[in-house]
Amino acid sequence: MKEKKKVGIIGAGVSGLLACKYVLSRGHDAIVFESQSTVGGVWTKTVRTTKLQTFKSFYQFSDFPWPSSVTDDFPNARQVLDYIQSYACHFSLIQHIKFNSKVRSMDYEGSSDDESQTWTVWSDECKWKIVVEDTVNLSVEAYRVDFVILCVGRFSGLPNIPEFPPNKGPDAFDGEVIHSMDYAAMDDEKAARIVRGKKVTVVGFLKSAVDIAMECSTANGIENPCTLIYRNPHWNLPDYFPWGVHLALLYLNRFAELCVHKPGEGLFLSFLATALSPVRWAVSKFIESDIKHRHQLKKFGMVPAHSFLQDINSCQLALMPDGFYDGVEKGSIILKKSSSFSFCKDGVLIAGEERPLETDLVILATGFKGDQKLKDIFASPKFQEHIVGSSDRVVPLYRQCVHPRIPQLAVIGFAESLSNLYTSELMCRWLVELLDGAFKLVSIREMGEDILRWDQFMKQYARGSYRRSCIGALHVWHNDQLCSDMGWNPRRKNGFLAELFEPYGPMDYASK
Fold first, then answer.
1. I need a surface site. Which of 63, 229, 321, 444 has the fewest CB within 10 A?
2. Of 99, 96, 106, which Cα lies nearest the Cα of 28?
């Protein structure tokens, strides 16, 4: 008879809910700690115009389809949150969640840090102590669990604020400086009020930045144009149909993955990836040509120096809001490329420009410190060092899920993909099979070697953005490894051609 485990899950976003559901389905006890008062993670606080970035058919629970009332292929944030909350209620997960419970630290109760360095296999002789603060009554309580699943996400909680020279940071500015996280946390009325009638400057060029810039442009028009400062442009998509071809047919199937070198591939697959490199190049150029044509990127000086392939391999794709470049054309959005910026009393000092940019409000859409948030949760300095690894490598997680030298702990939802819900669900299913003893992890040495192979892949294709740990353009290969570990058949399609060319999605993994 298998041992019943008590599992602590940190975070009640999509990954946390999936972890809770699958842990409970195997008869284990689950307790979820959520710092907010509701489930939904990043979807609880979004920019008003935010929509789902992938087709809903790729962003759905395999056993809980979208309701028929949601007809849009890209539901808005409210619809996504309703869907996630409905999932939690349908599977009776709410009763297992402690809301307003912020985890202050986690401590491993087992071998010493020094002893852990001598392990050759993943240890199962330990427990974790989780110290949790109730943010309502400010009480603190410690919980002991057999296993921990971290589902803290990397796009919330700890904003990334750029560093500035002395006396040239936000304190030098007479106006207001906020992070996109603060803007997203405002209700619609307050968000509209804070930008209305003001000269707003937005820093960044990924999804939050362009959405916020578009909202400011709509609110203020050319009378008070929104200035968007960016370091490098990206291949932000007008839609998912370059020249009428669905992007999933070009990147989310096995044939597309045959065109790239994969971690752990054999000689034949390596030869095939090299032989198909012209196809890989041609597909990237095909998509780039559509984006350049439809967004008139040359006209606005916005053609990226890197390839589309690099953006998709670093998960830096975003759907451009409708009318964005129309706003640039008419002057309600002003684009300024700069390697750096700083503040002065009257506004923003942009590198290469003599006069400061006069502005009333600066919104920093500069991302989050996901690595630091992951690190801060551990009490042990050694585990803090282990979990994030070195700055010149990817975050060292085997199967993008477990660390070789941090026992009885998994991280779900940290590695990015083109549909994080879909990726997290299969990882949770892999994890509960591991908990049940259906398979054993390979040795610590072998896990480390596999992590290095993924590190090499991400550096080759994502270049400078490899730390994002993106598996977006290699999700079938990653899923194959999870399936093989669990004893499932990785081939999920009917027929050779379907297996090669049909896109893979969450419903392909609805059953074993």
1. 63
2. 96
